[in-house]
What does this fold into?
Amino acid sequence: MAIERTFSIIKPDATRRNLTGKINTLFEENGLSIIAQKRIQMSRAHAESFYGVHAARPFFKDLVEFMVSGPVVVQVLEGENAVAKNRDLMGATNPANAAEGTIRKLFAESIEANSVHGSDSAENAAIEIAYFFAGLELVG
Ligand code: ADP
Ligand code: MG
It folds into this structure.
């Protein structure tokens, strides 16, 4: 299986509760290496553009408010099958449906404040990584 990269965000509900380290431990214990990482305050324009695919959804405005409500940690994770592996580790969008042991089952507060973002395809991973990181910032 191929070594891949995926893009991850530790969302404001998780940074607020000081969960960055616990979530990073789960990545590392599951074969995902953090090859780039920074803590940032997203601007409204950043959040609206990043979640642009959801612009027509009823939850879009609230989602943007949530994503700018505090710091986030943006990251690049690398490992075998990283995109699918991270989606499995994250669990379902709604924590009520997330499997035992997943990040969202362990930590998410709600379907909106669900602690982590992870790319849903290799194509989107490349776009999302380039949106937040320069090539020189990725140290594999
Ligand atoms: P995922 O993050 O699992 O890929 P989506 O891409 O469908 O999920 O949605 C992006 C984000 O929008 C979710 O992680 C969550 O924060 C928020 N969201 C999704 N669906 C809802 C909803 N029904 N109500 C409120 N927020 C939602
Ligand atoms: Mg998604």
